[in-house]
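Glycosyltransferase, Alicyclobacillus mengziensis. C-alpha cells?
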Amino acid sequence: MKRQRFSFAVIACTSLVLFGCIGLALTHNFISEDVRYFLSIIVCVVEATLLLWSFYQSIIGIAGVMPLKQINTPLKRYPKILCLTAAHNEDAVIATHIRSLKSLNYPSGAYSIVVLADNCTDQTARVADAAGATVWERHNSRLTGKGHALRWALHQKANLEEYDAICFFDADNLVHSDFLTVMARHVEDGKMAVQGYLDTKNPWDSWVTTAYASSYWYMNRFWQRARAILGLSAAICGTGFCLSTQALRQIPWEATSLTEDLEYTARLLLRGHRVHFAHDALVYDEKPLNYAATVPQRQRWMQGFWTTAFKYTKPLSKIAFSGESSWLRSVDLLIYTWQPVFVLLTGLNILFSVAQWCFGMKWFHPWLISLIPPAAWETLGLIGLALPITALILERAGWRAYVLFPLYLVFNVSWVPITIEAIRHLKSTEWVHTEHHRAISLEEIDKVS
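C-alpha cells:
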C-alpha cells in the first residue's frame, strides 16, 4: 500500500471535494444553475464515453463464443525456430523452464534454446547452462529492462538468417509440449506474428493469483480470440509469442519501452501486419501471491500504456482516418492503448454513482440517464458481468474461480489507484523485477487442474 499513497490521497481529495461541495450546496440550497450545468456536462461526458467503450467491447467480445479457425495442416517441413528466454535473476525457476522446452514435441535439431541472462547477479547463467541451454550474458547498467535486452539479443547475437522464426518466453514459463508445432504451422501458413494462449501455473495459490487467472481466461476468450475471429489484431502479451524472422527483418526490434510487447504490436500494425492468436499454443506463467507484489508489475504496465499511447496515437490515427483496409485495426489498437483513460473514467464514474446514491440527482441534470431506457443500462451491465463468468465456463475454470469472483471484481477496481500512480511516475523507465519461485512442472499443473 505504501507504493499507492499518492493515488489514495488523490482519490480521497477528489471524493472530499465532490461530496463536500454537493452536500454543502444542497444543505444550504445555494447550488447555482451554472454549477449544476457544469457538473452535468462532466457526468454526461464520462458516462457517454464509458457507454460507447462498453458497448464496443461487448460487441467485440461476443464474437469470442464463435469457433476460431485452427491451422491443422500437417507440416511438410519443420521450420527452424529459436526459443529465446529473457531472464533476470531467475535461478529459482529457469531450470524447470528449460526442461519444459527440452520436452517439446518438435524435432530437437529444428529448434534451439537460448537464455538471455540480462544483468544477472545470481546463478541464472550457470543453472541455465547446466540445464542444457545456450546462454547469452548481457551486462548494461544504463540500458536496463526487457526491451533493451531483446534489442541487444536480436541485433547483436541472433543470426536471423539461420532461423525461420523466434519464439519468446519468460524464465518462469512452462511451455506446453505442442507449442512449437502449433507455431510452426502458423509460420508455414505465412503468419508474421502469433500470440499464444497465456495461462497461469499457480491459479489457486491465493485470491490474487485466482484473480489474475480469471483475467487471463477472460482476455484469451473475449479479447484475443474474439479479435482473431473478427480479423482484427490480437496483442502481443510479453511472452508466449512467435515472430517470423521475415517480420524482424522488415520491422527490426526497437521496442524498448516498459511495455515492449504493446509497442511492437503497434509497429506491426503501422506496417500493415496484424498479430494472430493461437488458442492451442499454451504457455503458463507465475503470478504474484499477494496484492502488494502485483502493484509494481501492474504500475509498470500502465506506465508503458501511457507512453505507447502518446508515441503511437498520431501514426495510428493517420491510418485510422486514411481509408486503408487496416483502418479498423488501427482504431481498435488506439482504443486498447488508451485503456488507462477508461480506467480513470471508471473510477470517476464510481464516485458519481456513490454521490448519486447519497444525494440523489438534485445536483446535476441526468441527461444521458433520462435519454437511454433503464433496460439498456441493465442489459449492458449484465453483459459486463456475464462475459467474465462465461469465460470461466468456456475455459473450464475450477469452482474456486466462481467462489472468488467478487474478489476478481475488486481486483479490477484496484486498477484505478494503480493507473493514477502510473501517471505520477510517467517519466520513470525503471524496470521493477517480479520475483518468481514456483518451480513446478507441467505434470503438477495437470494434477491440480
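Residues 190 and 244 are 9 Å apart (CA to CA).
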